[in-house]
Fold this protein.
Amino acid sequence: MLSKEDQRRFEQITRHLRESDPAFFARLDNRARFRRGRWLLLLTIVLWASLPATTVMFGRSAGAACAVVLLANAMLMWRFRQRWL
């Protein structure tokens, strides 16, 4: 955790970097967005793949819980789709 002074200094450096080299800053920002989207997509694939196995192994209630998590994941992906596409 940064102290308030260090946080202020970090924000100042970041703001200066954004203003002085916007192309570089945009590339860094896009990489972070892409990484988040990749993890969310991977989570979706794993959840869909585990849904049938979870239902068979642990019963309908566990399958229903997994389905609820999948629906929440789908809503998150829909809500933040512009951030990581």
Notes: Helices lie at 4-20, 22-58, 60-79, 81-84. Residues 60 and 68 are 12 Å apart (CA to CA). The mean pLDDT is 81. The first helix runs from residue 4 to 20.
